[in-house]
Amino acid sequence: MSLECSPAVGDDQIVKENCKALDLDEFDIKNGIINKPTPKNVPLSGQYKKSFAYYTFRERLPNTLNTIWQTLLKTKQQNELPNSQEELDGVMEKIKLLKQQMENNQQLELFKGKETDQKVWNSFIENLPQDQCTFYQACWLYAECYMYRKLASYFEASQSLKNYDFFAQQKFHALKLASEVMEQVAENTKNSENNVKTFSRLLKLNLWGNRCDLSITSGQEIRPIGNLLDIIDTLNDNVLIDHSEKIWNCLQNCSKQKDSKVIVDFICDNAGFELFTDLLLAQYLIDNGMADIVRFNIKSIPWYVSDTTEQDVQGTLEYLKEFKSMELNRLGNVWSQFFEDGRFVLAKREDFWTSPYEFYRMADINPALYKTLEQSSLLIFKGDLNYRKLLGDFNWDFCEKFETCLRGFRPTQLCTLRTVKGDLICDLKPGQAEELSKQNKDWMFTGEYGLIQWIGKEDKQ
Q1: pLDDT over threshold 50, residue 278
Q2: Angle in degrees, CA 149, 44, 132, rounded to 5
């Protein structure tokens, strides 16, 4: 008989003894946590103790909320928002309550404030099965997105804090920490050649820039170190899937079609150093005729600690233009001009990017956005969360085809640049995951491995 430690099974005392033997604490017993890895072909969730989702809800997200609370307390004590003290107190109380709700595995609540996407979120929550509507029972993706959306709603409901980015200080601090490396990268890439080798190197620079993810560290600082361009050349074996050349060929073919402008979309992830590498790669595409327009799809609200908002784009450009380094100063001015003349474009606000929905549902939930993406020659999905939304936080077999996992999401050609920070992946070779596990059982959580996956609009792999 296999024991999954549900309190409803057998005598309560026997269950507790069995659960203790299986390394389950009182919280686990109360909430029916199963001390196993997530089975194949089921949604990822906190129900399984040997999963990154469980660790996320027990450790990472409570720590994130605590970091935010401490930051707001410091802001209050230093009187940085003198006209918002009372509302700040109210927001801090709500954050404390949200943390308690998570720690007690309570139900996801409906939104009742001033959210522009309230109907979408409430419809989503109301349609969740009753037994899948708490933090640990819901799909990991749904519950984690819910937490960040709730956070933003507390500020939106206020008068004086509605436009306040409560992650801004952490993001700007991370940008400053990366200044030396950005200066070095800028100097070493200013005369980049137009060939597949150089393109592949810039693509990998953009991939590894995703390591600087504040949500993984609950908001604690991450500093890029070393000569990144030299380091990148040593990490080729860490790129488990490398479709760089396919992406190059895709862009070369698109640039030869003169009947319309070539648009490339970045579905952005982190601000700071990663955004800097996004802009660097985007300039390379423009300068070498692989794109006429690069469109940046960013978040409409503060999201996952370090995700890029319009404020972050503008702040980064201003920071670079005022920086003492001549090369960073030059890039800041060049990129600002690109935005002014329409070669770089900020996509219009889309709440879908901060919804709980997987991308395969986009055509039904937001058909206008899907049609906009169909106009693009290539979609570049950045980072771990976008990868999770492409695959749907579903525990696919590691060798399952990328095409299958997309479940029909094919508006145009697309690729994903992702450092691996969660326990889902697809398109690996048979035995590849097992070999990696022998080397390090936690290989899926460290960010040491990356993916550059591509699929064409009609590609059948």
Answers
A1: yes
A2: 65
